[in-house]
């Protein structure tokens, strides 16, 4: 295996151009050659436990609104949210439970498998064959409980072919045990890539998070916050980070009974942070769920660092999953325009069984939310600054290699897509 | 109108916690409600919440602890919601020393999705 230093420079050391972050034309190319050909995460299987449960995702970068539903036979299907008759949306809301999908324009109805089952005044349509007018199907597949859709007529890769080269080693992580999910959303006036870049390096932590959680990450001897390791694949990328076990936020085992670091976690911050210390103290034993490092799949904390805190996994193109032993965060950076995106942010914890556990969970959750407000704080300034064109390129250090990798993959896919178009 | 005003004279909190009733305006059942109240408060009001609750936390969790989250009475829930507001204001008191995130993105533009399918009831 090559060293981190070698991997950092594998994509070169040139500055990265700004234009792709401010150009409407480049965004159109991304829609065509990336988003409309790639698997996009839309939700968890636990969100749709019963037949008839559905949700609707607006995917602007795919020019699509997608219904995902659980059928009576228990499988999941995805359809375009478009009536076959005169193109109304079938579902106006974002979620629900239904026996049929029913168009409010002229009353056409579809069953949970998307088949057309009802047409008012059907005899007035000449030779209408119901079987030809079901809802338009969208490719759907599931990996580790994460639901993905692909709007391409023929996806170039299966979901497994797409994900497993990088993420097979995460299989078995107890995602399905973490069913207490808190979500937030915001529309942010920033390019989606520029925004995601702010989440895939630790260089910013000492500054953007200097008031909050900077002390939760483990510093190098020179005082820097550097990743333990980073991996760049054909599409995806991973970064592993070490925490300071003497902080509440930085000790991933803090809540479990067997947490070796817990007493010192309480001792160190209790004077300056009595609420944080109380959360840790009263939360202990608040959940039945606990895993040890040894029970985690091999690709979690792949360097086996004793002070490992979390791994960042960027599932191409827009899905960020950061994994700890006892919770995970999942964010989608859904593009809306070249200079606007929807942050769809979720954190998943195990169910808490006691009031103390619930208090700890609330403390961790609102701390995370406020840290996200810090992460979001620079983005609209970044976009406005890019748009001035005062600078044409950004310069990157070794440990910002994920910024470079994101751009390189998108540029490659656009180049390939344009090449294929030229050969047609 | 705060919860305290709306229910004046009722038994609002479990026995032994009546002295916390002046803080009942903070007994709010949703994160959206709690963040809005935090954003609208002065720093001194956040300090008053902390100083009012911290000395009682031991007794609060000793009382609520054995019950299980799905077995709480309305009075128990009011007490728990009060404690969840303490968690809400913790970053303001212990990270930022002001009600809002320093230089932060507007919290009211990043509100919780309260109807998310997997959101816990409490």
Folded structure, characterized:
The complex is a heterodimer of chains A (424) and B (122). By secondary structure, chain A is an alpha+beta fold. Chain A has two domains: 39-164, 3-layer Sandwich (Rieske Iron-sulfur Protein), CATH 2.102.10; 172-405, Naphthalene 1,2-dioxygenase Alpha Subunit, Chain A, domain 1, CATH 3.90.380.10. Chain A has helices at 4-8, 24-33, 159-167, 192-197, 205-208, 262-267, 274-283, 355-377, 379-387, 401-423, and strands at residues 16-17, 40-44, 53-59, 64-70, 76-80, 95-97, 101-102, 109-110, 116-118, 137-143, 146-150, 180-188, 229-232, 237-242, 308-315, 319-323, 328-337, 340-349, 393-394. In chain A, helix 7 (274-283) packs across helix 8 (355-377). Chain A is globular, with a radius of gyration of 23 Å. Chain B contains five helices and no strands. In chain B, 45% of the residues lie in helices and 0% in strands. Chain B has helices at 3-6, 31-39, 43-53, 57-64, 74-96. With 122 residues, chain B is mainly alpha-helical. In chain B, helix 2 crosses helix 5 and helix 3 (43-53) packs across helix 5 (74-96). At the A-B interface, strand 12, helix 7, strand 18 and helix 8 of A face helix 4 and helix 5 of B.
CATH superfamily caption of the largest domain in chain A: Naphthalene 1,2-dioxygenase Alpha Subunit, Chain A, domain 1
Please summarize the sheet with the most strands of chain A. Answer: 7 strands, antiparallel
What's the average pLDDT of chain B?
A: 92
Number of helices of chain B: 5
Q: What structural class results from the helix and strand content of chain B?
A: mainly alpha
Overall form of chain A: globular
- Low-pLDDT parts of chain B are none
Order of helices and strands of chain A: HEHEEEEEEEEEEHEHHEEHHEEEEHHEH
- What does the radius of gyration of chain A come to? 23 Å
Q: What kind of oligomer do you see?
A: heterodimer
Measured as a percent range, the helix fraction of chain B is 40-55%
- Rounded mean pLDDT of chain A is 91
Q: Which topology of the largest domain in chain A does CATH recognise?
A: Naphthalene 1,2-dioxygenase Alpha Subunit, Chain A, domain 1
How much helix, percentage-wise, in residues of chain A?
Answer: 10-25%
